[in-house]
Write a structure and sequence with these properties.
Layout (H helix, E strand, L loop, with lengths): L36 E2 L3 E6 L8 E5 L4 E8 L4 E5 L5 E9 L4 E7 L6 E8 L6 E11 L13 E6 L4 E6 L3 E7 L17 E6 L3 E2 H20 L1 H136 L1
Antiparallel strand pairs: 1-14, 2-3, 2-13, 3-4, 4-5, 5-6, 6-7, 7-8, 8-9, 9-10, 10-11, 11-12, 12-13
């Protein structure tokens, strides 16, 4: 049991160099520390606030007292005291709408404003922009936040797993859950309601601890606020409508693109068909011309064959006529030969009869 989100799998904190160090909160001369900007990595442990109490101690990695946090969820205000009891800084919520704005002031409120926090509540997608004011601004001035934030907070704020980025690129610090207790006693351990803040070198650890506490308080306030939740739901509905419109426009653009592609493809097909048809027509024309020439040749060949056939028929008819004439003449000659033979036979018979008569008479 136990567990939760740990440091494993998180990107390492880079921090800053000595030349680009970040120092916002000044230190009191009565404090036991020389500076809040250290040249090493620092790990702090913070207690998650609740609607009943936000008072707690911010501890270092050894469990020693670093800052004392006190305040109220109803008034959305915090005070931070050092180990000597001095009020290091205070936090007050100044506006509430779709974006919640809070000021970090030096000393007790009202005091010089060293930073402004813009909390954008969006459930698991909540983000915070931090604007640093150097030099600090008096509380009576109207602060213009129409510029890029100095520090951007991104991550899963409800689960206490997020990071602080300077200029959106350099990772100054990160917040994560570290539960080292195992077994059923995890629910009775003070570690159950604590989270860890890891800060890179040359970064103001007091300022980052105050910012992490402010993020926790502002998110808790927005979670239980009816107005903030209604604004969040309205933004979700508006976002869904906008997404639907964007998807509709995207689909329309896609349909138009598909329609234009189809038109272009049809034009290409028509051009191809026209070219193919023209090529076919030329081929047919060439074949037709070749066919006409071949037809003329065939006609000439047929004419010559017909002429030769006619000559052959005439020759055959003439030969037939000649044969008929020869046959007729042969029959005529044969008839004459037969008549002569018959006449000779009659003459011989008469001669025989005469011989017989003469013999008889004798």
């Amino acid at each position: 049991m136990g567990g939760g989100v740990t440091k494993e799998g998180l990107e390492p904190v880079t921090g800053l160099t000595e030349e680009t160090s970040l120092s916002v909160i000044p230190i009191f001369r009565t404090s036991l520390r020389d500076s809040y900007t250290l040249n090493r990595y620092t790990t702090l442990k913070l207690t998650r606030g609740s609607i009943f109490s936000v008072d707690s101690n911010i501890l270092d990695s050894r469990g020693f007292y670093f800052l004392r946090k006190s305040g109220s969820v109803l008034t959305t205000s915090l005070e931070f005291r050092d180990d000597a009891g001095n009020i290091v800084a205070s936090l007050e919520k100044r506006a509430s709408c779709s974006i919640c704005i809070a000021w970090i002031m030096l000393g007790a409120a009202p005091g010089p404003i060293v930073a402004s926090l813009c909390h954008k509540y969006a459930g698991r997608n909540t983000s915070v922009d931090i604007f640093i004011h150097n030099p600090p601004l008096p509380p009576e001035v109207i602060i213009d936040l129409d510029r890029e934030p100095d520090i951007v907070v991104h991550g899963n704020i409800p689960s206490n797993q997020y990071s602080f980025y300077l200029g959106g690129r350099t990772k100054l610090a990160q917040v994560f859950n570290r539960k080292e207790v195992r077994g059923p006693q995890v629910f009775l351990s003070p570690e159950m309601n604590m989270y860890t803040l890891e800060i890179g070198p040359h970064v103001d650890i007091a300022f980052l601890a105050i910012c992490a506490s402010a993020v926790d308080l502002l998110h808790l306030k927005s979670t239980i606020s009816i107005i903030d939740n209604l604004m969040y739901l309205a933004s979700r509905v508006h976002k869904n409508d906008r997404d639907i419109d964007e998807r509709g426009n995207k689909n329309n653009n896609q349909h138009h693109s598909d329609y234009h592609q189809i038109q272009q493809r049809d034009r290409e097909n028509i051009q191809f068909n026209r070219g193919h048809a023209s090529h076919k027509a030329r081929q047919l024309q060439n074949h037709s011309q070749a066919g006409k020439g071949q037809q003329r040749i065939n006609e000439m060949s047929l004419g010559k064959e017909q002429e030769g056939f006619n000559i052959y028929n005439n020759h055959l008819n003439n030969h037939t006529q000649d044969s008929t004439a020869v046959n007729n003449s042969s029959d005529h000659i044969h008839d004459k030969d037969n008549d002569g033979a018959a006449e000779n036979n009659h003459r011989l018979l008469r001669d025989d009869e005469k011989c017989i008569e003469s013999d008889t008479n004798q």
